[in-house]
User: What shape does this take?
Amino acid sequence: MFKETLKQKILSLFQKILSRKLSEVSPSQSPRLQSPKVPLTTSPTHSSSQEKQPPSTTLSNIQAEIRREQTFSLAKAIGREGGSFMKGESAIPRPLRATTRISQFITTHAHEPTGAFATALFTWASTDIRVSRQLDTPLIALHQIIHSLLSDPTTFCEFARQVAIAQSKITGDRPYFQQYKQPAHPEAEQTHQTIRTELTELLTHLSQPEP
Assistant: This one.
């Protein structure tokens, strides 16, 4: 009996001391229990299924992307248009028909159909705006182009430079550029005189009525 009473007194005293100590600690100083940080891990199956899927790409989006990567050229424009240039008359687009007619004329009447002069003249004429404005009469456009080459010294000298470059690509030799009213290089195969002579001959053929 005595032991039980003593035990109760000791327990009561211990509770009072503990209560006093707790009352002296401010709320801000009270220890906070923090849950340990556990790294979140997911299995490969769950992560792949939870990833945000990109929006579906439509056919129009693919075509728009392709167009942005493409560069514009007359050949591509002709390919897209198909035969719409001459509906009901020919499946060949008019720009292609015009340049083909010019090429046929040059190769028929040039001294060397695949030489530097013929190559340079076709390249020069096919990029001239006068051809695009006269698609149905390309030889008239060619007549105007050759006439302007013979009448304008600056334009003629530039064309002669293109002939020299074309000749260099064929032979592999360095190009010889002749200055206006200056003698040509002794090793030059194409001179201002030979170029002017051949342009004049083509102009004479163009002045004649087609058979």
In short: Residues 114-211 form one domain. The radius of gyration is 45 Å. Residues 25-60, 62-67, 69-73 have pLDDT under 50 and may be disordered. The chain is about 60% helix and 0% strand.
